[in-house]
Amino acid sequence: MDEDSIDEQITNYVIENKESHYRLVYTYVRNIEDALDIIQESIYKAFLFKGSLKNIDYIKTWYYRILVNTSLDFLRKRKRLVVVDDETLSGFDLGKMDMYEDIDLNTAIKELPEDYRIIIILRYFEDLKIGEIAEILNLNLNTVKTRLYKGLEKLRIKINDEDQEE
């Protein structure tokens, strides 16, 4: 496969799936501008490292891995940022937050530990197969299955607890 063909296929894939890519990244960073920056950086990395895509049939898992890793890198860098006071904080442009309805499921998913949350999002919101998730996250297939099961159990408990409080 020649370089122009790979470029074209990456371009088409990114354009055709931009909404699901944005949704995935947004679940990590919860900020419009940050999510768009990560998307842009991921596209740059895809073209920079297109040689690592050995088989075009695996473009979905290959690109999702780039998105996930870029999101995690961003979160690690952000954790290192220490703000001194409110005045310093107000000097930074923090971007505009999305305003979604506060849905019980959405809230419960946000409160899940990261290891469970990403697997549930990839499986049920991005409709990826368990094998694809294992490849994207570079995890053993059984680890993904276990975390999916435990994450769903934690969601059930959390949602049932909230229902009983009402």
How would the blueprint of this fold be written?
Elements: H1 3-16, H2 18-29, H3 32-48, H4 59-80, H5 86-90, H6 104-111, H7 114-125, H8 130-137, H9 141-165
Helix pairs in contact: 2-3, 2-4, 3-4, 4-8, 6-9, 7-9, 8-9
What does this structure look like?
There is one protein chain. By secondary structure, the protein is mainly alpha-helical. The protein folds into 2 domains: 99 residues, Rna Polymerase Sigma Factor, Chain: A (Orthogonal Bundle); 67 residues, Arc Repressor Mutant, subunit A (Orthogonal Bundle), CATH 1.10.10. The protein has 9 helices and no strands. Helix 3 crosses helix 4, helix 6 packs across helix 9 and helix 7 crosses helix 9. It is globular, with a radius of gyration of 18 Å. The termini are far apart. About 3% of the residues have low confidence. InterPro entries: RNA_pol_sigma-70-like (IPR039425), RNA_pol_sigma-70_dom (IPR014284), RNA_pol_sigma70_r2 (IPR007627), RNA_pol_sigma70_r4_t2 (IPR013249), RNA_pol_sigma_r2 (IPR013325), RNA_pol_sigma_r3/r4-like (IPR013324), WH-like_DNA-bd_sf (IPR036388). Belongs to the sigma-70 factor family. ECF subfamily. This is Sigma-70 family RNA polymerase sigma factor.
Query: How many strands?
Result: 0
Name the structural class: mainly alpha
The whole-number mean of residue pLDDT values reads: 82
What would you give as the CATH superfamily of the largest domain?
A: RNA polymerase sigma factor, region 2, helix turn helix motif
Which percent bin holds the helix content? over 70%
- Poorly predicted runs are 98-102
The CATH architecture of the largest domain? Orthogonal Bundle
Q: Please report the number of helical segments.
A: 9
Biggest sheet descriptor: none
- The H-and-E topology, N to C, reads as HHHHHHHHH
